[in-house]
Amino acid sequence: MPRVVEPRAEALPHEAASNGCFETMRAYGGRIFRLDAHLERLYASAQFLGTRPPDRARLRGELVQALSRSRLQEAVVRVALLPRRDQPAQPSVVVQAASVLPASAYRSGIRASVVPARKFSVGSIDPRAKYSARLGSVLAVADSQLRGVDEALFMDALGGVTESTASNLGAVSRGVILTPPCWLGLLAGITRDVLFAAPGVPPARQAGMRQSCVRRNAECVM
To answer: Residue 1 — pLDDT band, cuts 50, 70, 90?
Structure first.
């Protein structure tokens, strides 16, 4: 695969490519964090969407090699499965340097705002599938930029807060981390599962979150 592609020289996507899926992974110290868990979720998405995936072991090797060739220690690795007719999906791998938040963001937090943009409803597409249609996220990011905040928060059909454009959401309340359940229409986060299982972290409880819950609590995590 060429390292640089001229978009105007490529064929337009056809209708068979509408059921693509992807994963975005973080690399620390030159290693992809929870790579096998991300691949498990990617192949589960492909199965749900009816996308024929490539060989898993081979794709895993390609991801590791792509990160190694980049020579980046702190990176973001994105793989998308592009469906093709009568053959396995074509993997597209992109590695780029990670944008690290300044230390002040961890000390004082970031600014977030609930935005009106919505993702597809649970009745339309299973939230466990990380599908390629991301218009809701694009609109939410644009909205947050217009508001002058750092991150946008999605709402469900009933107006409850569910997640941000890039991560799961939790509110620390009375020594417990409240986090919305996935059946409300959000993706099960891999980092969230690791965090909640880590020693010293407050216990987590899945529950719907009203906007007032996010506003009145002194601390939220993403």
So the answer is: very low
Q: What is the tens place of the pLDDT at every residue in 33-58?
A: 999 999 999 999 899 888 899 999 99
Q: What does each C-alpha distance from 131 to 68, 80, 89, 169 come to in angstroms?
A: 27, 9, 14, 20
Contact (CB, 8 A) for 74 and 97 = yes
Beta strand 204-206 pairing with 176-179: parallel
Q: How many CB atoms lie within 10 A of CB 9?
A: 6
- Structural domains of the chain, with CATH: 16-97 (3.30.470.10), 109-221 (3.20.10.10)
Residue 133: Cβ within 10 Å count: 13
| Structure tokens that stand for 47 in this block | 């199965």
